[in-house]
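JOB MANIFEST
job_type = single_chain_structure
chain_count = 1
residues = 375
[input]
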Amino acid sequence: MGALLVLLAAPCCVWAQEDPCRDLASHVYATAPDLVYEGRPDSLYHLVRDWREVCGDGEPILRLTILAAIWDGAFTESLYDGGILDALIWRYHAGRLRRVSGPVDPDWGPGGIATAADFAPGIADFDAFTTEFADQLLPHTAEASPQRFFCLYYSGRPDEAWALLSSHALADTDLRWYHQRELSRLEKPASRQILAFYGGQYVPRGNALYFGDHASLAVSYGIRKDRLLLRGLMELRPGRARYPYYVDHEGVTGQSDRFDNVLLGVEIGREIISWRRHRVEVFGGLAYDSIRPFRDEDVALWTVSLLYGAGYRLELGTSRRWLLGFDYRGEQAGGRHSDGTDLDGGSNTWRVSMSFVLGDDGGDRLTGLGRGGAP
């Protein structure tokens, strides 16, 4: 297999036995530019073909294989299968240069023995070389061809490449079929598990004015599927009441100024606006609403509160898994006890939230495939 087999077979070289793919990568990184500048497409194509046979379908290997085949006039779609999408995503992945240990991520398919660490030394220079190489090849490719797609993509113009792939001109290519199949899989409505933390201000109404304004801290865990929302929540409002109130409940009587309100509830809702990174939702629910007026007595002034409100969410980051939110929630509480101070009333709560989407909802892959994030 040419120069690469000579490197592998060298008995005097310990590295050839211990870590062949790393040294082969360094050899190809150093040799490939010279072959291009010397105008030797056949030699480059055979060099990278042998590299691929030894070390599998690592992203740099597949990238140079495709560019060498285009230059040599030997390009066919048999050079890749559906795994090409993983390689394309990985080329511009934000964490690619930081992941230099462990198995290649994503998995480039069976047969490869290379790891991410094998490709790391010199990869920045190799990236610069292939970008320039693809840019030089671009004018020599047909307007509507997979070759044009790859030259656009590897020359640093992925948005133009995805636009070309989505056009009618490439509708009958294998690459378009792989792309559409993966998009169909990722864009199917799926549930998203969301963990959220809230901070805000509780402002009572009616007889609940006894309690006064308080800070509100909350956490919720929920599921969003399609446009429907379901979440459970726990909310705390620490502090003392603005005015003392009289308690006569379950045989316990006395004055108290304790508040320390606990809310445990369930909310259901629906997204009414979804545009780019912006979401607007409305929701309603019920909650167990409890106040413990005396520290040393096992007595709780509790009621069931009706919840209703609306919220706005802004998706952050390239993966859109962080969500910044602003909510208004109203509450209408029932009677807490009949013989003490009447504490019936409601409240308004304004909150800021930060949420995180748990698990993998496909947002990273959709972004990498030119769709700009999760549906």
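[summary]
The CA atoms of residues 276 and 315 lie 9 Å apart.
Strands lie at 192-206, 214-225, 228-237, 240-249, 252-258, 261-275, 278-291, 301-316, 322-333, 345-358.
exit_status = 0
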